[in-house]
Amino acid sequence: MSASGTDVVLETRELAKEFKGFVAVNKVSLKVRRGQIHALIGPNGAGKTTFFNLLTKFLPPTSGTILYCGEDITSEGPAQTARRGVVRSFQISAVFPHLSVLENVRVALQRSLGTSFYFWRSEKSLNRLNDRAMQLLAEVGLEEFAKAETADLSYGRKRALELATTLALEPELMLLDEPTQGMGHEDVSRVTNLIKKLSANRTVLMVEHNMKVVSLIADTISVLQRGSVIAEGPYAEVSRNPQVVEAYMGTTDGALGGTH
To answer: I want to staple 207 with a disulfide (CB 3.0 to 4.6 A). Which of 27, 48, 75, 147 is the partner?
Structure first.
């Protein structure tokens, strides 16, 4: 795919963030192409979460530029960027535990009514959102849990619900921050398959530690070390890059393993 024109949804140019002399993100230039799953990997402390915080405007960059669909959004606030369709799913599951699964999705859908999060709205005014909420639950395989209290879901299903609430905001670009962190094997497999399925009509940028997950679903992988991109490309290429192997394993012998 060409890197020009409409192919690139998100681009950073020489993006940098310093904290009192410590360089957390060091002149990162990155292009996320439309319709791809782009994974951002690297050892702990590599700058991945700081980079995400720059993209979602939780932190201002020290220098550099962020472009979304070719438009400079570097100085925008977080709400303005979110309204463009850049939606982030956090490491910690961000759902309301004492609402039902259906109600969680309905809350996210309230945006389309222009009622924001006005919890005092009558229940009837939200009933028209039920059909769309059930469609979203079907997309993530949770329709049979619609009436269940969210607190009773397994961890992996809570993350699936969080993906449904993210989809309710109709994102053009989904930023997934460690989507499989803390999961058992079965949940990792379910959520990995779910991300692959949901990416069919969307663009995904994900931070992920699980190399097996990355190897299965990522089209492009960027490797960060000490705030800088040290390698980029498909998994087969990146996993054999001596710099990447050394960053992860402390050795240049052999290729990067799938489960580290």
So the answer is: 48
Could you say which architecture CATH assigns to the domain 1-85+171-260?
3-Layer(aba) Sandwich (3.40)
- Cα distances from 110 to residues 16, 125, 203, in angstroms, run 36, 10, 23
CB contact at 8 A, 77 and 56: no
The reported pLDDT for the residue numbered 93 is 64
Under the banding of pLDDT at 50, 70 and 90, the label for residue 211 is confident
* 166, 95 Cβ separation under 8 angstroms: no
> 7 Cβ partners below 8 Å, 6+ apart?
1, 33, 34
CA distance 57 to 53: 6
Please write the tens of the pLDDT for every residue from 57-111.
999 999 999 999 999 999 999 989 988 989 888 655 678 999 999 999 998 888 6
CA atoms within a 13 Å half-sphere pointing along the CA-CB vector of 136: 25
Is residue 69 within 8 Å of 7, Cβ to Cβ? no
Pairing label, strands 220-225, 203-207: unpaired
Q: Report how far residue 103's alpha carbon sits from residue 146's, in angstroms, rounded to the nearest whole number.
A: 8
Q: What does the domain layout of the chain look like in residue ranges?
A: 1-85+171-260, 97-170
d(CA 156, CA 185): 10
